[in-house]
């Protein structure tokens, strides 16, 4: 098979050659063979990181996806031990019928466990459960020229902390043990209401977040003036009554990559405006399956292709509470002003639950994420402007989504980078890391 | 819930099938050469819902070991609802042309071992008068192509054997299914220059096999479009075929 791999944003373009093995015991041999001929490598899960954090400098990655076995499952305690290449969707398929859910899930179920740890992902319940890394009790880390290390809060704690959010740089996660969330039904009860501006968002969030497991908002990022920051606020909880069913909806697919992006100003403005008007002005209760609630985009396979051959970049930042309302306003004004926008601009308040990880992204504050079709304009004008706002507000960008941040912004925002660099497996090197630390 | 015997249980296609049966709470008797790989496969199936998993180390080409395997299997499962024969290798055609010992060994791996196993299994199934024998053959057996005719020969023997066995066993209520996968992305095909769009994932192939067993398909091409490809390839007349480098 000569297929190459890319990151989810398909930018920067650097086709990665997959090196796979079928058995976890073969990983050290495979890794040694790759570094023998290419000197460095990087573990690669299912390619759901957006930028260059999952791309190896050598363009030779250890493709972990084939390592997707259960190793142990304790349904009394709700603890599973799985190989690192297993996707969250594969886990849900098995745990939902047994009355469990993932305690933290990102916006796609197609990320792998290894990737979820390496990026210390978070979800709509960050305000109550923190990041994914908080629910990982231990994992096995393979480092070059070293015996395998079992890492947990008590065992090799330094390496445990460095690997959670460690972007795959501390070594290869071979397997991990996860604590699950018991649920009584797989359905989600939600409440949905639209808001007219950012001030309304922040008051809704203050009023409702602590009462609900999940909270997220979608923003019309093209709305200007008094409408700046209008959007749709959604909170939800696992239903107390219902059934335990794995969602198995038919999936749509974008079969080919169009030569140019289908996302343009016209389609965006129409979509954003319609989407906002479609939603109720009054608080409306709803109930539905978990998949459309957590993973609306997973319905469409290869949705990243709609951005065309050039791909896209996601801009995700988090701004500390004290500055968040003001900075969000500035960011959205700058984006609306640029006329570039995003289908799904997502705004969410993050809580103050600390992650065990050294380089975890969330801060107590508000996080904003938007997708932009790739163009040279982004890096020249819009992103520098947004970066300046984030910098001034004491915020930071999310490495898992990033393909542009400057080294100085990164090192400023993640002062623990030096500790990670000290603990890095010398055989692991990503394009992201090379870009921001040198 | 099914009681499933799998020979070559650590192969990619077999594992993918077993996962689908495991979620239904099935019981397994898994046979393969490597104990460690068997253990890892068993743990995975148990995590997914398998009730009982019994492991048995055996080299499928050692036909002397087959009867003991079958009696252990019967002791563990009581009856066999599905027997999946999935072991095999992909021979190096050039090496087989140079060394007859390699050629004969590959025939043993892919053909005579399967026939030996089917022979004793058929007698067990004849007693049971129920169940399915599902055998992984290959599209390669449909025509002798210069690029891998030794493998093709082995699989042609398996397909023909299955066809005869199917007609014999049909009368006693036992189903025999011949599975003919095309190119599948597995460790066996790793490193081969296969044409990307034609290559299937083991999961896809497994879903079709499991569904095929349910509806008692006789010959199952997987993915399905291989039926059409092979129809065309089978209909190429020999004066043309011998000039091609397929």
The domain count of chain A comes to 2
Low-confidence stretches of chain B: none
Principal-axes shape call of chain B? globular
Broad structural category of chain B: alpha/beta
Which CATH architecture of chain B is right?
A: 3-Layer(aba) Sandwich
Query: Which chains have the largest interface?
Result: A-B, 17 and 22 residues
- Helix vs. strand class of chain A: alpha+beta
N- to C-terminal separation of chain A? 35 Å
Overview of the molecule:
The complex is a heterodimer of chains A (438) and B (246). Chain A is α+β, with helices and mostly antiparallel strands. Chain A folds into two domains: 70-183, Uridine Diphospho-n-acetylenolpyruvylglucosamine Reductase, domain 3 (2-Layer Sandwich), CATH 3.30.465; 188-404, Alpha-Beta Plaits, CATH 3.30.70.2520. In chain A, 28% of the residues lie in helices and 23% in strands. Chain A has helices spanning 27-38, 88-95, 113-118, 126-129, 157-163, 198-208, 265-278, 290-294, 321-338, 376-392, 407-413, 417-423, 431-437; strands at residues 17-20, 42-44, 60-63, 70-74, 79-83, 100-101, 136-142, 149-152, 172-179, 181-182, 188-195, 214-219, 231-238, 252-253, 284-288, 300-301, 312-320, 345-350, 365-373, 396-397. In chain A, the strands form five sheets. Chain A has an eight-stranded antiparallel sheet with strand order 15-11-13-12-18-19-17-20. The longest helix of chain A is centred in the C-terminal third of the chain and has 18 residues, at 321-338. Chain B is of the alpha/beta class and 246 residues long. Chain B contains nine helices and seven strands. Chain B has helices spanning 12-22, 35-48, 66-77, 93-98, 100-128, 149-170, 202-214, 226-234, 238-241, and strands at residues 3-7, 27-32, 53-57, 82-85, 132-136, 175-181, 219-222. Chain B has a seven-stranded parallel sheet with strand order 3-2-1-4-5-6-7, with helices on both faces. In chain B, α1 runs parallel beside α2.
């Amino acid at each position: 098979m000569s297929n190459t791999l890319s990151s989810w944003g398909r930018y920067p373009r650097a086709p990665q050659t997959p090196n796979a093995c079928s058995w976890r015991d073969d990983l050290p041999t495979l890794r040694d063979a790759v570094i023998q001929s290419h000197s460095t490598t990087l573990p690669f899960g299912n390619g759901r990181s957006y930028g260059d954090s999952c791309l190896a400098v050598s363009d030779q990655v250890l493709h972990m996806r084939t390592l997707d076995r259960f190793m142990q499952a304790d349904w009394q305690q709700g603890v599973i031990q799985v190989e690192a290449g297993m996707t969250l969707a594969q886990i849900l398929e098995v745990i939902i019928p047994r009355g469990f859910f993932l305690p933290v899930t990102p916006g796609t179920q197609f990320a792998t466990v290894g990737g979820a740890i390496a990026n210390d992902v978070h979800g709509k319940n960050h305000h109550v459960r923190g990041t994914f890394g908080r629910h990982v009790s231990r994992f096995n880390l393979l480092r070059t020229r070293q015996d395998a290390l079992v890492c947990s809060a008590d065992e090799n704690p330094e390496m445990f902390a460095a690997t959670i959010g460690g972007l795959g740089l501390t070594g290869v996660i071979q397997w991990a043990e996860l604590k699950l969330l018991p649920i009584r039904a797989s359905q989600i009860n939600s409440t949905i209401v639209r808001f007219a501006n950012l001030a309304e968002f922040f008051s809704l969030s203050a009023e409702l977040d602590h009462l609900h497991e999940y909270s997220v908002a979608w923003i019309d990022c093209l709305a200007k003036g008094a409408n700046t920051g209008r959007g749709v606020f959604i909170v939800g909880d696992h239903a107390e009554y219902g059934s335990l069913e794995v969602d198995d909806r038919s999936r749509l697919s974008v079969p080919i990559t169009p030569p140019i992006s289908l996302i343009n100003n016209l389609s965006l403005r129409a979509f954003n405006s319609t989407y906002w008007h479609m939603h109720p002005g009054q608080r409306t209760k709803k109930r539905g399956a978990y998949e459309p609630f957590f993973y609306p985009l997973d319905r469409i396979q290869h949705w990243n292709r709609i951005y065309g051959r050039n791909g896209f970049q996601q801009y995700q930042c988090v701004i500390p509470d004290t500055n968040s309302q003001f900075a969000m306003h500035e960011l959205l004004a700058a984006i609306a002003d640029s006329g570039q926008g995003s289908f799904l601009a997502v705004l969410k308040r993050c809580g103050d639950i600390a992650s065990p990880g050294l380089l975890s992204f969330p801060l107590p504050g508000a996080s904003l994420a938007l997708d932009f079709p790739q163009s040279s304009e982004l890096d020249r004008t819009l992103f520098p402007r947004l970066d300046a706002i984030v910098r001034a507000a004491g915020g930071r960008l999310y490495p898992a989504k990033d393909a542009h941040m400057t080294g100085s912004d990164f090192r400023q925002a993640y002062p623990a980078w030096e500790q990670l660099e000290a603990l890095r497996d010398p055989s692991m090197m990503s394009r992201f890391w090379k870009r921001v630390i040198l | 819930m099914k009681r499933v015997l799998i020979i070559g249980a650590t192969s990619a296609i077999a594992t993918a099938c077993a996962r689908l049966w495991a979620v239904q709470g099935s019981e397994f008797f898994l046979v393969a050469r490597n104990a460690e790989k068997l253990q890892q496969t068993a743990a995975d199936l148990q995590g997914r819902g398998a009730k009982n998993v019994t492991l048995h180390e055996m080299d499928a080409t050692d036909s002397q070991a087959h009867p003991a395997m079958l009696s252990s299997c019967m002791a563990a499962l009581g009856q066999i609802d599905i027997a999946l024969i999935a072991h095999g290798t992909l021979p190096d055609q050039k090496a087989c042309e140079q060394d007859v010992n390699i050629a004969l060994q590959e025939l043993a791996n892919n053909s005579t071992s399967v026939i030996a196993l089917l022979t004793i299994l058929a007698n067990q199934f004849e007693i049971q008068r129920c169940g399915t024998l599902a055998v992984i053959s290959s599209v390669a057996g449909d025509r002798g192509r210069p690029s891998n005719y030794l493998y093709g020969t082995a699989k042609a023997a398996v397909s023909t054997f299955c066809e005869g066995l199917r007609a014999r066993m049909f009368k006693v209520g036992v189903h025999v299914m011949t599975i003919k996968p095309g190119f599948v992305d597995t460790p066996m095909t790793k490193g081969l220059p296969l044409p990307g769009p034609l290559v299937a994932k083991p999961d896809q192939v497994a879903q079709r096999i499991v569904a095929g067993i349910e509806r008692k398909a006789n010959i199952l091409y997987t993915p399905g479009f291989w039926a059409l490809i092979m129809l065309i390839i089978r209909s190429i007349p020999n004066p043309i075929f011998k000039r091609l480098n397929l």
